[in-house]
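Q: Could you predict the 3D structure of LRRCT domain-containing protein?
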Amino acid sequence: MIEKVLVVVVVIGLSFDGACAQGSCRLNEYEMTCRGKNSLHELEKGKNYAEVDTLNVHQAGLDLSDDLFPNGINFSRLTLLNATNNEITRIGRRGFDKTRHVQFLYLSNNKIAHAQPDPFQSLEKLELLEMDEALDGNGEDKADMLRNFFKSKNNFIHLSKIELNKNRLDEIFPKTFCGVKRTCSEEICRVFLFQVQGLKRLELSNNRLQSFNFARSCLGELKALMLAGNLIQKIPADIWDFLPSVSSLDVSNNPLNCDCETVRLVRDDDVVFINQAETKCASPPEVEGKSIFELRKDYCSTARNPTGKSSFFQFIVLFVIAVGILFAYKKYRERLSHMSSAPVGYTNLQHEQAVEPEFV
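A: Sure. Here are the predicted structure tokens for LRRCT domain-containing protein:
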């Protein structure tokens, strides 16, 4: 009897695992959620899903360099596509050709290592692109992928927010967030850059970036830049030249060098720095571990700042050297004065020592 029960349990378990592996979709009014491999390809062909505006696809092992769903499936009103947690390794333009109206695209927690040129070309209504912990490969490959995302015929007029957190990015090419346009007349072709026109918020936190490596012409409309948890030591003095519209900046949990230039920069500008308590100095040693916003206003005019300390020490050394030179010169001059009494010439010697002849 017990053996029969065990056989039934095993059969039920295998059936359940097979169903999960095959995948299935559940429709709840305007939202569809699909799980498991081939779940989208099991949708009923010819059926109209035009009422669906949100599609969640998880654990489906998607290949977004190919059609997302088969021909004859209509998702004409789809505005949100959530494809997180799918172990996606490839994306391309074909994967999004049938989702042209998507405004919110979530691709986080994947392993994207290959991107065909201009994968988001058809997503002209895109407003948000979330790709946290989504990229795989070495630093240069990931930087090249990012550049390909936005080297597009799509002007991204509506794209206002990009999230690229936790991708272990070592670098970003300066013109990553610039598009390229090519215009030709009868005699000449011209190539010029334009910015991702609607971008207002860019998140690059918890990567391995070491600098603000952005071209001046690319982020003119950006309002918020999140760079927490990177390896940035220096905030460039001309930061507002290439980020003229930024009003919110997060550089917390970076190994900042709190020199006077940086201290003045964060205090004097009308920019809101996010997470100020965690925006701490890594150097110089005198202020290590302190928030840059907790340093006293006279920090740069006291001996506690390394530049001022060095200058004060140099002043003391130069002063001592000057006093020593003056003292030596004075002594030498006195010695010269003592040794240079009126010279005794031959004429004077004759005059002084001459003896008048005496006549006997």
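Q: Anything worth pointing out?
A: Residues 4-20, 303-309, 349-355 have pLDDT under 50 and may be disordered.
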